[in-house]
Specification:
The complex is a heterodimer.
Chain A lengths: L19 E9 L2 E2 L4 E5 L5 E6 L5 E6 L2 E8 L6 E7 L4 E7 L1
Parallel strand pairs in A: 1-8
Antiparallel strand pairs in A: 1-2, 1-5, 3-4, 3-6, 6-7
Chain B lengths: L2 H4 E2 L1 H6 L6 E5 L16 E2 L17 H11 L6 E5 L1 H16 L5 E4 L2 H7 L29 H6 L5 E4 L3 H5 L23 E2 L15 H10 L8 E4 L5 H12 L5 E3 L3 H5 L17
Parallel strand pairs in B: 1-5, 2-3, 2-4, 4-5, 6-7, 6-8, 8-9
Helix pairs in contact in B: 4-5, 4-9
The chains are: A mainly beta, B alpha/beta.
Protein name (chain B): Sulfurtransferase
InterPro entries (chain B): Rhodanese-like_dom, Rhodanese-like_dom_sf, Thiosulfate_sulfurtransferase, Thiosulphate_STrfase_CS
Keywords (chain B): Repeat, Transferase
Chain lengths: 98, 282
């Protein structure tokens, strides 16, 4: 989508100082994937949350500080796992290529 | 109830797309998902407007639910098949809701919208029109709905199953991690509640695990199959998913969903709250 900021949807109205944001984009051959699902797994591998990607391929989680795994599912693709560290007051950006 | 009567797969739905007595109903947390594409012939229920009273915190009443289904073209003798995003959270919630108002034949599409999409099955933006009916809801069946006083009385007595994520259970998060966290209530869980995240019952693609796997998961978490059970989460939708597993798939008697859940319990004055990963004392 034209003018989409990094991380996609605006964080306006969200108190980022209090949040531990993990966000990013899912791509296939450098093109955004708008019909993927991103699962957030905690440090024990337990499911914590899941979001579908936006039409621009973006996703976002409000996690707590610590290490997390992002598991991405998409049609006609193998699941992809990526680890990420979230910190309060910052936004962790992740690009997932499937 | 059993897996065979409560759950259908995508092939079953594909074979019944043109069956006038089968009504597909999509219910999503993201209430705009339906408009971007839905299974052919499916109608939409919006859990925030159609299923909630717009003034006080409660469900629409029997007459309102009757009027809603009449207007959407659902008959009392229709087979209602629910599906939705988020691994069927809100579809399971609507399933429980239809059962609460006494609808006879309700089924859930295994894997919901996600499995349908991951399998690259067809979605359409075509509008669905169904002729209005005269639907009559029954009185609420409170044998499947728990209220706060009985939840407090169940501490240390019945199975309490907290189906939120481990971090919500322990009090490290206040809400699912795809939602902003700032909220007013206290964090933690109801003392003695077992932590069995709803997601343990589902595979990555959103389908339910086998009955044997499910039995094992809840047994190992300390659920006593000889006791009555109350499931809760944050607002009662994920616990509908677990209610569905325990009551409809495993056939457990006396399972209730506490729809007030943590947003009610965690705001009550004077009730006990446990913090951390341990169950806590009664």
């Amino acid at each position: 989508m034209c003018g989409a900021t990094t991380g996609g949807v605006s964080l306006e109205g969200v108190n980022v100082a209090k949040e531990s944001v993990i966000q990013g984009i899912v791509t296939r051959d450098d093109e955004p994937v708008g019909n993927a699902y991103v699962r957030l797994l905690d440090r024990t591998g337990e499911f914590t949350a899941e979001v579908p990607t936006s039409v621009t391929g973006h996703f976002r989680f409000f996690a707590s500080p610590g290490e997390w795994t992002l598991r991405t599912l998409a049609p006609k693709a193998d699941p992809v796992d990526r680890t990420v560290v979230a910190q309060q007051g910052s936004v962790a950006e992740v690009t997932v290529a499937i | 109830m059993s897996r065979e009567s409560a759950l259908v797969d995508a092939d079953w739905v594909a074979e019944h797309l043109d069956d006038p007595k089968v009504v597909l109903v999509e219910v999503d947390e993201d209430t705009s998902a339906y408009d971007k594409g839905h299974i052919k012939g499916a109608i939409k229920l919006d859990w925030t407007t159609d299923l909630q009273d717009q003034v006080r915190r409660d469900f629409v009443n029997k007459d309102q639910f009757s009027a809603l289904l009449s207007e959407r073209g659902v008959s009392n003798d229709d087979t209602v098949v629910l599906y939705g995003g988020n691994n069927n959270w809100f579809a399971a919630y609507a399933y429980w809701y239809f059962k609460l108002y006494g609808h006879e034949d309700v089924k859930l599409l295994d894997g919901g919208r996600k499995k349908w999409e991951l399998d690259s099955r067809e979605l359409t933006e075509d509008a669905t029109t169904r002729e209005a009916t005269t639907y009559t809801a029954k009185e609420q069946d409170h044998s499947i709905r728990a209220f706060r006083d009985e939840v407090v009385a169940a501490i240390g007595v019945q199975n309490l199953v907290d189906v939120r994520s481990p971090d919500e259970y322990a009090g490290r998060l206040m809400a699912p991690a795809h939602l902003p966290q700032e909220q007013a209530q206290r964090a933690g869980h109801i003392p003695t509640a077992a932590s069995v995240p709803w997601s343990k019952a589902a595979n990555d693609d959103g389908t339910f695990k086998s009955d044997d796997e499910l039995q094992k998961i809840y047994s190992e978490a300390g659920v006593d199959w000889n006791k009555d059970t109350i499931a809760y989460c944050r607002i009662g939708e994920r616990s509908s998913h677990t209610w569905f597993v325990l009551k409809e798939l495993l056939g457990q008697q006396n399972v209730k969903n506490y729809d007030g859940s943590w947003t009610e319990y965690g705001s009550l004055v004077g009730v006990p709250v446990a913090l951390g990963d341990e169950r806590g004392e009664a």
